[in-house]
Amino acid sequence: MNDQQRSLLLDISSRFSPPKGVKLSYGTSGYREDAALLESTVYRVGILAALRSLKTRAVIGLMITASHNKISDNGVKVADPSGGMLTQDWEPFADSLANTPDSHSLVQLIDAFVKRENIPLDGEQDAKVFLGRDTRPSGFSLLEAAKQGVASIVSAIATDMGVVTTPQLHWMVRARNKGLEASENNYYNQLSSSFRCLLELTPQGSRPSGTNNKLIVDGADGVGGEKLENLKGMLSGLHIEVRNSGDGLLNEGVGADYVQKEKIVPRGFGPAEVGVRCASLDGDADRLVYFLVQPNSNKIELVDGDKIMALFALFIQEQLSILNKSEDGTVNRPHQTRLGIVQTAYANGASTDYLKQLGLQVAFTPTGVKHLHEKAAEYDIGIYFEANGHGTILFSETYLCALEDTNNDLLSSSKGSEKQKAASRLLSVSKLINQAVGDALSGLLLVEAILQHMGWSIHRWNELYHDLPSRQLKVKVADRSAVVTTNAETVAVKPSGIQEAINAEIAKYPQGRSFIRPSGTEDVVRVYAEASTQEGADGLANSVAKLVDNFLGSSSS
Ligand code: G16
What Pfam families does the annotation carry (predicted)? Predict the structure, then answer.
């Protein structure tokens, strides 16, 4: 680092002091905190994003959002050149950067890291960072901090993409790095045109149509509702009504996290929606769940991320089996294509059994799309979903090239054949689904296209398998980092003795299963339990929550 670079960094960073007594760590989804504590962190993540851009010689994304958290929180995360999450190799540097106490130690830290990583700071190339934010009021001042962070690195350029969904920003980063136009319009065009292609390929008359084309969407009073309003005008064959698109309080009694965890009707929905297909987005529109309002009750029937995954898996498997059918039409070889499924410990046991019955390979990772995405990228086609509705489908570049070639061959030899249509459908899915990260808007259009393809109602879809009753709780403790887990979060290795105590509780319940993990986005320990009855799942979750409390002690706050 030369003198000019050093004095620029010292000068700007001296205006952003980290909050005293707060230790930040780059969690499941970047940094999340009370927004008032985040200015210096966002500033420093701006620096990190610029350095990452220089290192990779590509555009990097910086998104200011706290997704499903309450409105007073905010957060920041980084998108790598592929549009996926920041490489985990850089997370320790992110943590040191966020927690270093003053400007002098900050400069030393950056200097050492730049040397170690061979980051070209000679000014010959520009760093390029796309900035995005959700609708939180604190986003505007945090955006300024991010701009200052980028500006602290000589020859770094920040481009403000405005208020966008998290997946839109990830998509734009990926698009730009592939040499495509990284605009919101291009995003809408790609989604709407691939959706249209899929609808055009819907089998005619061969299947009973139980699909009603009306869908009501809860926008969580976040950015997703507004964006869906823009997108829906470009769609035909689907009637979408958006509720909670920004007039009410963000994530308060609305949104995918609330609907999935509480299983209660979100604000703005009621008896008039009984029997209607409904969906819910989260605050930054990277999660999607479907639901049905129950008659005479405030309860919903949840159709969660696991069921979305089951629908996607079934559809992809069907297309592969058509495409890979041998010439004499007798032998199905669907396993010519490596199709893999990735879940977390939150996946309902019934969903895993169902996927295995389909003959699919199911792998497990810890919570957080950064883990699932990495695993899914090992397959030709990898489908990953968290039960909370965060997930997508990845197609490897090699597989996509082969698929394009196959489709071109079929177009010249047997255009309109079943095989050619199957190839076209898979190509359309690869364009519709956001391959950078889970995206509620693209996921929603794929669900809708598949329901029309199958001729299914939401009821028929929901009947694919029956969830085991489950319950999720959160426990506020003095220090959540005291919980350390292993084995894709299914075993707690710390505090010592807690896993044995949990096992003893599990043994009391038929089909009992339970685990604990520290949240990466809220200051709580999460408890998950499932059992053969709802009473059992509730009882197990409550006893495990008590154990957490006994072993870790309640927080005073
Ligand atoms: C983020 C991640 C998700 C993850 C969730 C877990 O969601 O993107 O992959 O499932 O955190 O949160 P926790 O660690 O608190 O259980 P989001 O939608 O809040 O960005």
Answer: AMG1_II, AMG1_III, PGM_PMM_I, PGM_PMM_IV
